[in-house]
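Subgroup meeting minutes
Present: P.N., E.W., G.H.
Scribe: E.W.

1. P.N. recapped why we're keeping a running log of single-chain structure predictions: easier to compare across weeks, and new members can see raw inputs and outputs side by side.
2. G.H. added today's entry (393 aa).
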Amino acid sequence: MDGAAMTTDTSRLGLIAGHDPSSAALVRRLLRLSVRVLPQSLVDGEFAFTLSGTSLPHGGGWQLNPSGTSSRYGAIAALGLLRLPDQVQREVLAGEDGHGLVGRLAAKLDAMTSRGDVALLCWAAAEAKHSELPHALERLAELDLGTDPLDVVDAAWIVTGLVAARAQADVERHLAAARHRLLAARGAVYPHVIGGTSSWYRSHVGSFADQVYPVQALARLHSSADDPEALAAADSVAAAICRAQGKAGQWWWHYDSRTGGVVEGYPVYSVHQHAMAPMALLDLADAGGQCHLEAIGRGLRWLARPPETAESLLLDEPPVTWRKVARGDRRKVVRGVRAASTRLHPRMRLKALDQVFRPGAVDHECRPYELGWLLYAWLPAMAAVPVAAEAAP
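Output recorded in log:
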């Protein structure tokens, strides 16, 4: 797929190019790859849950195999695709555009039970200015009642979805409650669940996703209507994860919500490096918060040359970015032991485990949402994809 020829001198790419030209070149390469691989994750009009890589015999490269479906990933892909020109959207979606994709997803609203999924669809419908937005908001209000435990990621998406809709609908009462819930859940950083947890030894642990989506939500809340408390909270969490960032630019995986310290670093996910961290941190800067360009650049440089493995995470044929670099720890022993030990004492991380379970295993998989966030993070509305070949960084 060639896509549409056009400039990529967007404000965000310009910021990175001025600070770190090689990282900007990497982002342009990733954007080109994304519009080539997204069509391979579309099966019978639905986005797959994952594309798994199968190594072909005799050094024949890799084959990508879609499996499962995910409305959540479809909504995130829609958010990214809406950033592209209509022609490119239709090339990716086999003739459909992003507006049509949002409509098809919205047809399932009454059967959706995940508040996070519905919030994402509210967000996408608002950005598409879709007629299904009132339906999506009504369904979200139906589901978002009571005090049942709620994942922090879902709580953040509810805020972001309502913020996206507030210029088109009266969401202020719901948004005020969602704002209060998200702000009240924060410790030094965020845990994984609001209002409960499935296990005592993980109650203090929050993932990287549990940090970046609240940063984004609170930054956008402040941008939409002056909210210094929300901006201060976003700044504080962003500063904590930037302080904890690995020396080679790794955005670590699990944090102690009481202290902001790292509980367990691995896996390191590609999407965190190229999309989720830049998306949240650049939204924060746009809202008037701290600008973390050096941290964003370090994260991108890790993706170009991860020190944990000699294997490249970026392939041009087939066009794919492998999902993560993990420990050789299939039973997730390190994750469980460190969650339990840091529950007892925040600094008890049992560093000897690093020698037993060394990182370096590459997960040969890619998920559509990773590409959706990549497009959304770096492109303004109705942007274009760079098509000229550039040397790999």
